[in-house]
Amino acid sequence: MQYLKLIVAAVVGSCMMASVVKAEELPAPIQMLANQGLTIVDSFPAPGGLKGYAAEYQGQAIALYLTADGEHVIVGNLLDLEGRDIAADPLYELVTGPAQEHAWEQISRATLLQDGDPDAPRVIYTMTDPNCPYCHRFREAAEPWIAAGKVQLRHMMVGIIREESPAQAAAIMGSPDPAEALKEHIDRRDRGGIEAVARFVRIGESVIRANHRIMRELNLSSTPIVYFRDENDHVQVIRGMPQPQQLEAIFGPRP
């Protein structure tokens, strides 16, 4: 069927990945997708005689629905009468939530740039490139909360935007006061930012290499990427510059 053809075409040629669910437990249509690169995490109840499967491919959660005859699979969204995605909660519980908690733990163990009061109650992790204009805008948007002592940013510095980004990121992390160096860089961005002083680059370059490894392991390739905990203590991720209406969800009530 068409949905199956589309997903198979999308994953042909990808590296083989072992499914979390044992292969002998998978019906043939689901196993075929596992063979093409999807990680089948677990099953979940679905209406209408269907059986749902939570899958992951390149960091994205995907819902699969096995038909009652066991011979066909539907890939994508299944909506109820209210327009809600049947798989939203199962996918978060089985795939997205654990993955985002894992990312939070990995980033928390990295060497990070402390920006703001380390005792501020709300911790935000953000992946920051020195030459990313949206990273600069995000830092400026956070300033009222940081100045009020409500929020601390912990930057995982990377260098992926421009040729000079890795050296500048390393120089910032290798400087005596990385937070002040980042602030100076943002203030001077129209003039090319800070100079990548060689001795600071040598100190900081191992940190940037390690941060790049974390990005690859998490299948991330852009900046900014913002990790925060919501009111339910669930890890949430926003890729790119957050919209104005998202700022209070990230930082809390405006001071």
From TrEMBL:
NCBIfam families, per the entry: PRK11657.1 (NF008657)
A UniProt-annotated Pfam family: Thioredoxin_2
Gene3D superfamilies registered for this protein in UniProt: Disulphide bond isomerase, DsbC/G, N-terminal, Glutaredoxin
GO annotation, cellular component aspect: periplasmic space
InterPro entries: DiS-bond_Isoase_DsbC/G, DiS-bond_isomerase_DsbC/G_N, DiS-bond_isomerase_DsbC/G_N_sf, Thiol:disulfide_interchange, Thioredoxin-like_fold, Thioredoxin-like_sf
Domain Thioredoxin-like fold residue range list: 121-250
Keywords attached to this entry: Disulfide bond, Periplasm, Redox-active center, Signal
Compartments where found: Periplasm
Function: Required for disulfide bond formation in some periplasmic proteins. Acts by transferring its disulfide bond to other proteins and is reduced in the process.
Record domain Disulphide bond isomerase DsbC/G N-terminal: where: 37-87
Similarity annotation: Belongs to the thioredoxin family. DsbC subfamily.
Name of the protein: Thiol:disulfide interchange protein
Signal peptide: 1-23
Alphabetical list of SUPFAM superfamilies matching this protein: DsbC/DsbG N-terminal domain-like, Thioredoxin-like
